[in-house]
Specification:
Elements (H helix, E strand, L loop, with lengths): L7 H8 L3 H8 L7 H13 L6 H8 L4 E6 L5 H16 L3 E6 L4 H13 L4 E4 L9 H7 L5 E4 L10 E4 L1 H14 L5 E5 L5 H16 L9 E3 L4 H12 L7 E4 L2 H13 L9 E6 L12 E4 L2 H17 L9 E4 L2 E3 L10
Parallel strand pairs: 1-2, 1-3, 3-4, 4-5, 5-11, 6-7, 6-8, 8-9, 9-10
Antiparallel strand pairs: 10-12
Length: about 350
Amino acid sequence: MGAKSITIKDIARELNISTSTVSRALRDSSEIGAETKKRVLELAHRLDYNPNPVALSLLNSQSNDIGVIVPEIANPFFAIVIAGIEDVAFAQGYHVVIYQSHEDYEREVLNVKHIYNRRKDGLLVSIATTTTDYSHFKHIHDRGFPIVFFDRICEEIDTHKVSVDDFDGAYTATEHLINQGCERIAHVSGPDHLLISRRRLHGYRAALLDYGKPISDDWVVASAYSPDSALEATRVLLARADRPDGIFASSDNIAIGCHAAITEAGLSMPNEIALIGFSDLPMAALMNPPLSSVAQPAFEMGRSAAELLINLIRNPGEHTTSISNVLKTKLIARKSSLRLIE
């Protein structure tokens, strides 16, 4: 059995003063004389007194904890975002508490309730692919709880957001395939209710339109942001009589499934079919052939989101206009798409 924790009552009993006097002395209240403060602090130090963090959070209305909800910690993109969040939070005296939605709406709702009820100071969140009802976020936002969305954002709530230029990244990826000589370019998109999926689809279509390339609804198939789902979707594309000779995948997790389907079909990359993803996960460069991708500044996204949230927490009445930080992407061309030297 562990040693008994020292409490304010123990210090008060030892010094024969009230617990309220001890509490005020520990908080350096001007109501308490210097000599009493000195006696309290010396005894607290000698007894190795550690304040109860839950009690302090109730007293100060702050826990110095930030809740972060991500779809999957195992996804390297979100792991890097979290590292950026922690980089800022730790320097500002905040602890980061990580929750996973596992792409499940009900679990996301429970995570939000837990963060709010446990008096975290604010919430950073990238929404689950199955989330179409945002009332759980609206509920706490309407009560003044600070929220910042990143990557997969919610436009229905007027708060700060951090994302990348999904349209421009998708346009650049599609343009790259066109420059490699692809004529029939397909797109394996994410779920269409997600803003990032729609923006990337629009970028893909805009590039085809600008370059006078054919646009066919049959060459656009939706997938969950997972390799297994993308594998099935790509099999459908490859079975078509007018099989595409290029694929832009809405994420690297989708591109991994596309890559597997192309290999399974015995097609060579990039000569028979070129492939490019979006995110530039660390494993992209290790695939065979290495996967071309649109790189996102994940660490910078985490830092930016954390800075915005901490400003909301510390200056609750000052942010009348919501900030939307849109970060730039970068094309990383590798052998899965490189037919020609650009």
